[in-house]
Amino acid sequence: MISKSAVPIEIANIKPQGLRITWSDQHQALYPYAYLRESCRCASCIHEWSGEKLISPGSIPENIAPTQLEAVGHYAISIHWSDGHDTGIYAFDFLKEICPCNICTKERLNSAAK
């Protein structure tokens, strides 16, 4: 599990799999591109009032990949995608919450079951 105070010390674009983030607590995870694209929380992807997803997993191209990564201050990254989408900002706290590694996924499932 990623420490709440952890910050990224490295974000590597591991083509064609995904972004590998190494956190300051030495936790490391590979975030698949399609998973990140589907997780976008911008107003084009999430209805601003209901919170409903406006993008379906089937609409994301299989070969989706970032075309550009940009730091957003010291708290997030902006990802420009090969499908033309470029308005998503991925806060580091959000990336910690959605970490797809087995340990974090198991902890989320256990927390949800309580």
Short synopsis of the structure:
With 114 residues, the protein is an alpha+beta fold. Helix content is 21%, strand content 30%. It has one domain (8-113): NE0471 N-terminal domain-like.
Structure description:
With 114 residues, this protein is an alpha+beta fold. The chain is 21% helix and 30% strand. A hairpin with a 3-residue loop joins strand 4 and strand 5. The radius of gyration is 14 Å and the shape is globular.
Tell me the Rg in angstroms: 14 Å
Strand content: 25-35%
CATH class category label? Alpha Beta
Assembly state:
single chain
**Helix amount:** 10-25%
Main β-sheet, in a few words? 3 strands, antiparallel
Shape: globular
Describe the protein's topology.
Elements: E1 8-14, E2 18-23, E3 28-32, H1 33-38, E4 66-72, E5 76-81, E6 89-91, H2 92-97, H3 102-113
Antiparallel strand pairs: 1-2, 2-3, 4-5, 5-6
List keywords for this structure.
3 helices; three-stranded antiparallel β-sheet; about 110 residues; NE0471 N-terminal domain-like; single chain
